[in-house]
Design a protein that fits this description.
Protein name: PorT family protein
Oligomer: single chain
Number of helices: 3
CATH architecture: Beta Barrel
Distance between the termini: 42 Å
Keywords: Signal
Radius of gyration: 22 Å
CATH topology: Porin
CATH class: Mainly Beta
Length: about 220
């Protein structure tokens, strides 16, 4: 029994270092575009959408599992800024945890192309409206309005996205990445739970496009 345990430990030990030998740390930044789509299916309301522009910075750690297949968990800070009305700005800050499941086609020593499927877990750090020199906390306002309706977390901080992306590795140390994420969470889902009659009538989803470059160590 001890011999078997020692053998398994040895296999795990060498497997870990073999995997670590193919691991890569990278830091990156880029342009961030997001679209917030509001669907309220009720009399007097129309579907609306507005776009935000911003940036992201992040760090990730890519582990090659088999040939070109890899998994890359990471951490991102994301900032978005939108002009929603005359003189009114809507700004949001997010902490994102993307898990990039990717496959790299190594074409030469200095060039490769990759494809990715990326689930991303996002948490809103702050959401603000800036108008006439004042700053309003959207989460606080939504909380007050939700309390009046008997709804907790009217505008949810948590978002889950599922993205697809492509990348290009250049000169061993540079990676260009493009990814589009589909928002899977209705940010007003708590309202729908409290008022089932609105179940199919209130939907707010955020989609996102990121284009950036990373340095691979």
């Amino acid at each position: 029994m001890r011999t078997i345990l020692k053998s398994l430990s040895a296999v795990c030990f060498f497997a870990f270092f073999a995997t670590a030998a193919h691991a890569q740390l990278s830091v990156g930044a880029g342009y961030d575009y997001s679209s917030m789509r509001n669907v309220i299916d009720a009399e007097g309301y129309e579907e609306t959408a507005f776009s935000s522009h911003g940036f992201y910075v992040g760090v990730d750690y890519n582990v090659r599992l088999w040939k070109g297949l890899g998994v890359t968990p990471g951490v991102q800070y994301e900032f978005t800024d939108a002009l929603v009305d005359d003189g009114m700005k809507f700004q949001e800050h997010y902490l994102n945890i993307p898990v990039d499941i990717n496959y790299l086609f190594k074409l030469t020593d200095d060039f490769g192309l990759g494809i990715s499927l990326v689930p991303s877990f996002n948490v809103g750090l702050a959401s603000e409206l800036h108008y006439d020199g004042r700053t309003l906390d959207v989460y606080e306002l939504a909380g007050q309005f939700g309390d009046a309706l008997g709804v907790k977390n009217l505008y949810g901080r948590f978002d889950f996205m599922l993205g697809v992306g492509v990348s290009a590795d250049l000169f061993r140390h540079f990676r260009i990445k493009v990814r589009y994420d589909f928002g899977m969470v209705n940010r007003f889902s708590s309202l729908k739970k409290q008022y089932p009659e609105l179940l199919e009538e209130v939907n707010v989803h955020r989609n996102r496009l990121q284009v950036g470059v990373a340095y691979v160590f």
